[in-house]
């Protein structure tokens, strides 16, 4: 493991007041290297065969989540996707974009959206999580070039 990754992991664990254990370090190293939210299964596959099992990984992710170190990003087919909370603010997670054509999902870490305001009395909005859908650049380009090439047949 690279020394800057090691240092980042030390910092994350101490900021959350969590003891340094093998599984914690291994899971954080996967999350630090990931560019997308990860499921416990994906992390297990990444760390196999020497890594912790899926149950340990899931429990560790839950404890990271309780400590605010990671966020549960979204639920897909009853499976939570997790990512480090470093790219989010106190009140808002960065938006996620899903391509409706190829299913690819991306973190829009550069994008911030205005906080929603509740029109109803009594609701307190604590955190905003937004999922956007549409076409990714690759699919947008493919569909567009098809439109150009196929227009004689339409
Ligand atoms: Zn796509
Ligand atoms: Zn993300």
Provide a descriptive summary of the structure in words.
With 154 residues, the chain is α+β, with helices and mostly antiparallel strands. It is 39% helix and 16% strand. The chain contains five helices and five strands; from the N terminus they run H-H-H-H-E-E-E-E-E-H. Strands 4-3-5 form a three-stranded mixed β-sheet, with no helix packed on it. It has a two-stranded antiparallel sheet with strand order 1-2. Strand 3 (96-99) and strand 4 form a beta hairpin. It is globular, with a radius of gyration of 19 Å. The protein starts with a helix and ends with a helix. The mean pLDDT is 90. One zinc ion is lined by residues 37, 73, 83, 94, 96, 107.
- Counting H and I runs of at least 4 residues, what is the number of helices? 5
Rg, Cα atoms, Å:
19 Å
Number of domains: 2
**SSE ordering:** HHHHEEEEEH
Uncertain residue segments? none
The end-to-end span amounts to 55 Å
- According to CATH, what is the topology of the largest domain? Arc Repressor Mutant, subunit A
Biggest sheet, strands in spatial order?
4-3-5
Helix fraction, binned, reads: 25-40%
Q: Bin the strand percentage.
A: 15-25%
Bound molecules: zinc ion
The CATH superfamily name of the largest domain is: Winged helix-like DNA-binding domain superfamily/Winged helix DNA-binding domain
* Major pleated sheet: 3 strands, mixed
Mean pLDDT across all residues, rounded? Answer: 90
């Amino acid at each position: 493991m690279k020394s800057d990754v090691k240092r980042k992991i030390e910092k994350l664990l101490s900021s959350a007041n969590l003891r340094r254990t093998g599984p914690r370090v291994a899971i954080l190293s996967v999350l630090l290297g990931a560019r997308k939210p990860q499921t416990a299964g994906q992390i297990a596959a990444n760390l196999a065969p020497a890594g912790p099992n899926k149950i340990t990984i899931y429990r560790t992710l839950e404890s990271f989540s309780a400590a605010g170190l990671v966020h549960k990003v979204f639920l897909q087919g009853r499976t939570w996707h997790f990512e480090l909370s470093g790219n989010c603010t106190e009140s808002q997670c960065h938006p996620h974009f899903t391509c409706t054509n190829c299913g690819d999902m991306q973190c829009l870490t550069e994008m911030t959206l205005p906080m929603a305001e509740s029109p109803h009395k009594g609701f307190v909005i604590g955190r905003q999580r937004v999922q956007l859908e549409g076409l990714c650049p690759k699919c947008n380009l493919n569909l567009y070039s098809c439109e150009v090439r196929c227009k004689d047949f339409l």
